[in-house]
Backbone:
């Protein structure tokens, strides 16, 4: 009993005098130090190998795991030192991203929108349309009934019945890729346009291509535009007949599968 009383008294006295507590060590490196392997030296600073199994709290309130002189509020040294289980799915529009600098310090680098990492939506015309635009003159357009292939843009929706895309607010790059065949006599220059959405209105972008006459007149092209739209913008997929071509009447085939619409959201 006297021995136990003496040891308890020594521990209390040591704590009062030095404000340090060591577990498995008589040489605590901070206010509180656990030497899990009990391999620290009785004097001096433990080696890196000896520190690897230590937990330390310093007078500055820093906590070190695997290091006895932590420089941050939580400083961990070890292979794969951090594991988080049960983390829930966040909101890419508002939640902050984390990055690690060259010193291993975790920092906030903003949202995905701030980084402007493109997120895609892909639409495709699955079956070709014969006599496409045959009833439309220059400036007329026709709905292209595409199928949604992939959508990684949060809150973007597609009404396949009306071929209408509803956009969340943001900045977008849109590319319409088409493949056509003309068999009408004298048709050697094909002109198309897309009325892209822009803010609360729209803007027209043309594409004109020359080709041979007749059944071997396969030709293709793409129309690309970068735009900004407010939330709730609805846009129906149309392809129109431009004014610089010499094709009219029946005979136009809009090719399936090779006619596509690619949309990339590139930020706010």
Residues:
């Amino acid at each position: 009993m006297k021995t136990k009383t003496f040891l308890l008294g020594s521990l209390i006295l040591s704590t009062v005098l030095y404000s340090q507590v060591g577990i498995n060590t008589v040489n605590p490196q901070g206010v509180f130090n656990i030497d899990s392997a009990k391999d620290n030296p009785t004097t001096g600073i433990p080696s890196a190998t000896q520190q690897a199994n230590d937990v330390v709290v310093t007078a500055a309130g820093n906590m070190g795991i695997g290091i006895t002189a932590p420089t941050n509020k939580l400083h961990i040294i070890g292979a794969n030192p951090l594991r988080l289980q049960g983390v829930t799915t966040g909101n890419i529009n508002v939640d902050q991203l984390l990055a690690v600098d060259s010193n291993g310090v975790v920092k906030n680098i903003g949202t995905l929108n701030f980084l402007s990492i493109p997120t895609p939506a892909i639409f495709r015309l699955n079956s070709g349309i014969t006599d496409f635009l045959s009833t439309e003159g220059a400036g007329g357009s026709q709905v292209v009934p595409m199928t949604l292939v992939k959508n990684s843009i949060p809150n973007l929706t597609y009404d396949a019945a009306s071929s209408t895309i509803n956009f969340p607010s943001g900045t977008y790059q849109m590319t319409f890729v088409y493949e056509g065949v003309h068999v009408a006599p004298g048709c050697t220059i094909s002109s198309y346009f897309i009325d892209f959405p822009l803010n609360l209105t729209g803007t027209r972008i043309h594409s004109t291509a020359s080709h041979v006459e007749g059944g071997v007149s396969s030709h293709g092209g793409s129309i690309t535009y970068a735009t900004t739209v407010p939330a709730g913008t609805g846009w129906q997929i149309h392809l129109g007949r431009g004014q610089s071509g010499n094709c009219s009447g029946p005979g136009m085939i809009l090719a399936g599968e090779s006619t596509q619409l690619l949309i990339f959201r590139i930020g706010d």
Q: What stands out?
A: Helices lie at 2-18, 48-51, 112-115.
